[in-house]
Amino acid sequence: MAPTLVTACTALPPRGALVALGRPGGNSRCPTRSRGFTLIELLVAIGIMALMAGLSWRGIDGMAHTQAQLRQRADQVLTLQAGLSQWAADLDAMVQLPNTQAMDWDGRALRITRRSTASSGDGLLVVAWARRNMDGGGQWLRWQSAPLQSRGELQAAWARAAQWAQNPGDDDKKYEVRIVPLEQWKVFYFRADAWSNPLSSDGLAAAPGGEKPAGPDLPVPEGVRLVLTLPADGAIGGTLTRDWVRTTLGGGKS
Asked: Which DSSP state fits 37?
């Protein structure tokens, strides 16, 4: 068995002093030891620091979440602005050709024959705007054909745009672009100093024979009104109206 070292708390007397052995009340004493933290105090301190760390993390996480929402809403606003600018650009670039429809609204899609702005030798384009239910909600979409060089290609693209709006195939979807979520939309024509339904014959001037023009003979309206109903949970919600006026008219109507 290993020996045990015992330390006695006895103060040594000064040199030359008498030592009374076995007599109580001497000058021997133990040095006082400093008091430390108890286990309960440490646990309380650790709990307070953990609580402060949790509150700080919640604040940082809330700031990051808010910043992400602001960034997402800013992207939605920029996308909507780009879509409206493209809508106006398509109408501004509209081309009227003999025996060819420049623009048509069938209640589902707006089709436009327009020139290409990339190069004068790229020919014409057919673009279409429509709304379709996708991923559990409505989406505003734009479709564009490849550059067209002949009347036959133009007629085929015109029919393909109508087919895309009703029942698009996988190949047709390659030419479409999603713009913004959309609940519903409406289009109106400005004819005879009034906004009217494009599908009605109100405001159309009668031909010399007394019949209303139809098909390729339909005149281009003086203006087009676009009414979009955007979801309430988006960056911009509610109803948005955008008027376009033919640049050749001047002045404009709204």
From this structure: -
Is 140 within a domain? yes
Q: Which of 32-36, 45-49, 172-176 has the highest average model confidence (pLDDT)?
A: 172-176
Phi, psi torsion values for 180, nearest 5 degrees? -145, 160
CA–CA separation, 52 and 57 (whole Å): 9
**Does 206 map to a domain?**
yes
pLDDT digits (tens, 9 = 90+) for 136-169: 899 999 999 999 989 999 999 999 999 999 999 9
Can you tell me whether residue 224 is helix, strand or coil? strand
Residue 97: closest CA among 191, 248, 216: 216
User: Whole-prediction pTM value?
Assistant: 0.69
Tell me whether residue 101 is in a domain. Answer: yes
User: How far apart are the C-alpha atoms of 85 and 151, rounded to whole Å?
Assistant: 28
Q: Domain range holding 158?
A: 94-245
Provide the 10 A C-beta neighbour count for residue 230. Answer: 22
What's the number of domains the chain is made of?
1
Q: pLDDT tens for residues 225-253?
A: 999 999 988 878 899 999 999 876 544 44
Reference 105, options 79, 124, 131; nearest CA is: 131
- The angle at the Cα of 184, spanning 178 to 190, to the nearest 5 degrees, equals 100
**Dihedral (Cα; 228, 134, 177, 218), 10-degree rounding:** -50
**7 in any annotated domain:** no
By residue count, the chain amounts to 254
